[in-house]
Amino acid sequence: MMLKIYACLLFCFQFMSVHGQWTALTSPYAGNMWTMEFFNDDLGFMNTNSNLLKTTDGGSTWSVTTFQGNVDGDFSFPTSTVGYLAGYYDVIKKTTDQGATWTTLTINNQALPIYSVSFVDANIGWVVSLNGFIRKTINGGATWTAQSTSGSPTLRHVHFVNENLGTAIGENGAIRRTTNGGNTWSAVFGAPSTYLNDIFFVDSNVGFIVGGQGTIMKTTDGGVSWTLMSSGTTEWLSAVCFRNALEGYVGGSSGFMMKTIDGGSTWTVEDNPYFFSTQKINDIVYKNGEYLAIGDGGHITRTGAVNGIGSTEEVGPAFEVGPNPVASTLFIRAREQMNLPFKVRVFDVGGALIRTVSLPVDRGRLDVADLSNGLYVVEVESGSSLTRMKLVVQH
After folding, report:
1. What is the 3-state secondary structure (H, E, C) of 299-312?
2. Residue 255 contacts residue 276 (beta carbons within 8 Å)
3. To 5 degrees, how large is the angle CA 169–CA 262–CA 336?
4. How far apart are CA 391 and CA 375, in angstroms?
5. Residue 3: pLDDT band by 50, 70, 90 thresholds?
6. Which tens digit of pLDDT belongs to each residue from 4-28?
7. If both were cysteines, with which of 97, 105, 114, 186 could 86 make a disulfide (CB 3.0 to 4.6 Å apart)?
């Protein structure tokens, strides 16, 4: 009888709308918010027109840490203390104390706006700008070396997966790729002739690009080639974030947002508090089992039940999880050897995250004896592998 009740509950929840799962957070800043980065489940930073915001509680609350001024929006924190902010007039700002103080670094005295910055550690990083401008530092910004690329594209975003593999994107469909730390950059063709705004790599092979006219592109070979996905929209897309190779979000103009759970093959439009507004979404991040989005007008939103019962698609065969129903101990094992630790999250029927546990390499156990009888969602994540399933606790 108890299992029949659970089955009925599950049937009802499966047909709940997956929309409306984004909620607005109180913002300490009314201007535009550009980029956001987290280092663990609690510590994160956000850049605005003139202030750096900091959170120590996973994004629930934000405080203004400093006034840095004269910055353009993009930033990179390779460590929890060292960070770099893109600025106007050929300068970037550097901090070594979590944004408490900033030093101005001049790059090459060319008076160009620095559109994007990417550091792989505290010393090695790149910046991009107009006219194919690419510069690299190996000493924390003390000196910069010019790197050349074919043509003179305006490059809007640069991202390095490691110190060798990097991709820069920009206007008129420009994509440039390097496999040797920028010593040489090659043009990658196939993008539509529009602004390419943001790039996100899940790992060294799988990555996504978004841009104008609803452009979404995907690579599975580290950026050697890109495939234009069918997005079903012509909205201006300015932000992309994936938690693994299957699940991710894109966002853009008028608070527009879409989600995929199949690696970008299909997309579903998602409601949020700023949908149909005049406020553009500028960045999306994933951390601690949820997504956060920021944009124009000081808006900050986060997902609530996106990984809970409101979104119970069972995905990913990477892990074996059982028994199900479970009374006291849940056993978890990777189907193939990964040699990686993994994280387990448990959500209740309302979609609230109630437990996060890190377990050893490839296998482990989770004690659920203290959980009440009922229906839950359990997620197991290691690297780019994810398994999500419904779980019945029955003592």
Report:
1. CEEEECCCCCHHHC
2. yes
3. 100
4. 6
5. very low
6. 333 333 333 332 333 347 888 888 8
7. 114
Phi and psi for 190 in degrees, rounded to 5?
120, -5
> How many angstroms separate the CA atoms of 142 and 32, rounded?
30
Domain final position from 262, 287, 310: 310
| 226, two tokens | 């890109």
Q: If you ran DSSP here, which 8-state letter would residue 20 be given?
A: S
Answer whether residue 127 shows pLDDT above 90.
Answer: yes
DSSP 3-state of 11: helix
92 lies in the same domain as 70: yes
Q: Which domain holds residue 386?
A: 2-10+312-393
Position 80 scores a pLDDT of 85
Tens digits of residue pLDDT in 48-63: 877 788 888 888 888 8
Average pLDDT across the chain, whole number: 84
> Given this model, what pLDDT does residue 20 score?
43
The structure tokens listed for 160 are 């390095």
Q: For residues 344 and 308, give the distance between their C-alpha atoms in angstroms, rounded to a whole number.
A: 13
Listed in sequence order, the DSSP H helices in the chain are 2-14
Among 250, 276, 310, the domain boundary falls at: 310
Smallest Cα–Cα separation from 21: which of 351, 355, 391, 378?
351
Structure tokens at 206: 């799988």
Q: How far apart are CA 35 and CA 333, in angstroms?
A: 36
